[in-house]
Amino acid sequence: QVQLVESGGGLVQPGGSLRLSCAASGPTYDIYTMGWYRQAPGKQREQVALITNRGSTNYADSVKGRFTLSRNNAKNMVHLQMDVLKPEDTAVYYCKVQEYSGRVNWGQGTQVTVSS
Q1: Is residue 107 within 8 Å of residue 6, measured between CB atoms?
Q2: Which residues pair with residue 47 across a beta bridge?
Q3: Which DSSP symbol is given to 44?
Q4: C-beta of residue 5 within 8 angstroms of C-beta of residue 107
Q5: pLDDT 10s digit of each residue in the chain, 116 long?
């Protein structure tokens, strides 16, 4: 089973930036998409950004133009650069990896808090 380790969360002021990283280990040869979801208190988990192994990306409308997702296939890592952060971006961010087999793997989550 693929294991995921997330890093980079924290507290930032509105307008600031954070960079989240997710490293996959284990049987990574079957990985298709990598990306991030988030869940704010009292809300459902939502997709933030996804990237395929060929580099095609998909972003939620709420983060387009502010967040950038990149992937390093050689290192099995994905990075989410978050700029111009807003209080409504506050959530627990989860790394998600989907394999060609359909299996889905989740990270444990990292807290992002945007507050002055």
Answers
A1: yes
A2: 37
A3: -
A4: yes
A5: 899 999 999 999 999 999 999 999 988 888 899 999 999 999 999 999 999 989 999 999 999 999 999 999 899 999 999 999 999 999 999 999 999 999 999 999 999 999 99
